[in-house]
């Protein structure tokens, strides 16, 4: 397998040079020799504990499904490793006006079944996404789009109801994947087949077990596959994942390792382990139904006391990264606003905040947490938070837990002053970390936080098409959130990927939204 991949890579790298030398009468060492057999193509092997719920990009949105969809389908724009702004994939796009976004498709694009990809397919894909409105899908992201028009076969125009600077980022999500209108039903999902124009094509699929992807040689975009394909196997648990990796039954493994198994893998000289920061963040949120939480001095005093590195170390063995803004590093406009506002944990400063607001101490604070949804470190995290707050002498903390379904209801109802939460964005832009807490229609709007200043900045950054000015507005908005402290970011997750020593480009595989782009992997 490795020899075959090396030969393919070498052929691509020196193909033009070989033609030049042959033209000069020099022998071509890359040409097949008489009697030599071409090695059979063999895919890389990927193991995971994730199970795909939908091959259809108009279906449910989860990490496993996104990983497969991102490699099967093409989007108009894409995000490349270490480049936070969208670049062309199937098209070049630009704003012609604040409410008109025009995408010019590349010529001679085709789907894996040979059908031509035109602007009609683009329109069909978006109209279908909005029509289906799949629960758990991303159709609600595109509410600013009034219509998609197609003046010719290579032009798709997005006509917006209101200016929306997020649109280029939204068009990089798997929800914006282009499907073949001749192969996909307009009124229902296609979950067992897939026809795209991405780096790979679907060769085989057994739901809940295996997926085989082979290289699509006619893909025309920046993510051309550097391997022949990928065979994905879903395993039952972390132990099975560990065994597959350490016995050589898989080339790489993703999602499902616990801290103890990762520590074992780190000491092995047979594998490589990377843990890049991912899009998922964890935080503690205040609910404004609580009279205590409604007081900004209480919120600011808690924010002044939290020691993030201590939580990362004691609860998670430093397998997570301390986070000082609701927007993690790597996104445009990000700033460590909480570090700027509160600097280091400081008992005297927190006491002064409460004293100036005439709040008697110790302040009784009820903190909610859930033992299942947020992993094995969740209990250790809230215990460390309780220790920190009570060690200051300023708070008296009562911990209350509930299983996930009930916990969701209790947090929305305001049963806790402060509660443990997590967020994974749906599109790769800072806006999707801020809007959930600031917008009246955001995911955490039920917390009751309202700020005229924050709302105005959110509206301004969404309408601002100048990138530098927009980043400045996003930075200002993070500052407002830090001062008001309706939510206190604590840490950013890392996504562990383990691979054999011979796998190259591993760091470029992890997408900011926590799934894998497989095309850059090679031996």
From TrEMBL:
Alphabetized Gene3D superfamilies for the sequence: Dipeptide-binding Protein, Domain 1, Dipeptide-binding Protein, Domain 3, Periplasmic binding protein-like II
Domain of life, per lineage: Bacteria
Alphabetized GO MF terms: peptide transmembrane transporter activity
Signal peptide: 1-25
SUPFAM superfamilies to which the protein is assigned, alphabetical: Periplasmic binding protein-like II (SSF53850)
Keywords associated with the record: Signal, Transport
Compartments in which it is found: Cell envelope
One GO term of the biological process aspect: peptide transport
InterPro entries: Peptide/Ni-bd (IPR030678), SBP_5 (IPR039424), SBP_5_dom (IPR000914)
Keyword Transport listed: yes
GO annotations of cellular component type: ATP-binding cassette (ABC) transporter complex; cell envelope; periplasmic space
Limits of the Solute-binding protein family domain: 87-443
Similarity field: Belongs to the bacterial solute-binding protein 5 family.
Protein name: Peptide/nickel transport system substrate-binding protein
Organism: Kribbella shirazensis
């Amino acid at each position: 397998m490795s020899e075959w991949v090396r030969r393919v890579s070498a052929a691509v790298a020196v193909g033009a040079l070989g033609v030049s030398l042959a033209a000069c009468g020099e022998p071509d060492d890359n040409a097949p020799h008489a009697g030599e057999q071409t090695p059979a193509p063999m895919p890389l092997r990927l193991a995971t504990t994730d199970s795909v719920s939908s091959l259809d990009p108009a279906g449910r949105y989860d990490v496993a499904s996104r990983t497969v969809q991102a490699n099967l389908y093409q989007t108009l724009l894409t995000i490349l490793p270490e480049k936070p702004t969208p670049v062309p994939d199937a098209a070049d796009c630009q704003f012609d006006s604040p409410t008109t976004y025009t995408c010019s498709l590349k010529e001679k694009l085709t789907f894996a079944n040979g059908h031509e990809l035109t602007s009609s397919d683009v329109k069909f894909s978006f109209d279908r996404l909005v029509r289906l409105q799949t629960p758990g899908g991303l159709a609600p992201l595109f509410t600013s789009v009034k219509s998609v028009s197609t003046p010719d076969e290579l032009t798709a125009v997005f006509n917006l109801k209101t200016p929306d600077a997020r649109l280029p980022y939204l068009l990089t999500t798997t929800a914006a994947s282009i499907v073949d209108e001749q192969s996909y039903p307009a009124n229902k999902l296609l979950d067992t087949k897939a026809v795209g124009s991405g780096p790979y094509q679907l060769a085989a699929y057994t739901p809940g077990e295996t997926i085989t992807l082979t290289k699509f040689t006619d893909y025309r975009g920046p993510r051309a596959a550097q391997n022949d394909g990928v065979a994905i196997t879903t395993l039952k648990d972390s132990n099975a994942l560990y065994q597959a990796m350490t016995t050589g039954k898989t080339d790489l493994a993703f999602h499902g390792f616990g801290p103890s198994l990762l520590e074992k893998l780190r000491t092995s000289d047979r594998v490589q382990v990377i843990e890049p920061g991912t899009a998922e963040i964890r935080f503690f949120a205040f609910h404004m139904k609580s009279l205590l939480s409604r007081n900004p001095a209480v919120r600011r005093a808690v924010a002044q006391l939290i020691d993030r590195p201590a939580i990362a170390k004691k609860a998670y063995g430093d397998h997570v990264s301390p986070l000082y803004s609701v927007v993690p590093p790597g996104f445009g406009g990000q700033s460590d606003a909480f570090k700027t506002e509160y600097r280091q944990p400081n008992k005297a400063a927190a006491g002064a905040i409460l004293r100036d607001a005439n709040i008697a101490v110790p302040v009784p604070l009820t903190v909610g947490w859930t033992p299942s949804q947020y992993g094995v470190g969740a209990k250790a995290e809230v215990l460390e938070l309780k220790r920190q707050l009570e060690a200051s002498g300023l708070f008296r903390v009562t911990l209350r837990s509930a299983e996930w379904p009930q916990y969701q209801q209790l947090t929305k109802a305001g049963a806790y002053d402060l509660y443990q939460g997590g967020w994974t964005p749906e599109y790769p832009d800072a806006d999707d970390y801020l809007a959930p807490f600031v917008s009246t229609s955001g995911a955490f709007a039920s917390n009751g936080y309202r700020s005229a200043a924050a709302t105005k900045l959110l509206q301004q950054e969404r309408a601002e098409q100048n990138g530098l000015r927009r980043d400045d507005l996003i930075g200002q908005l993070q500052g407002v959130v830090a001062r008001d402290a309706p939510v206190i970011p604590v840490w950013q997750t890392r996504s562990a990927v383990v691979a054999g020593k011979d796998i190259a480009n591993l760091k470029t595989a992890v997408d900011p939204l926590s799934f894998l782009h497989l095309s850059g992997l090679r031996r």
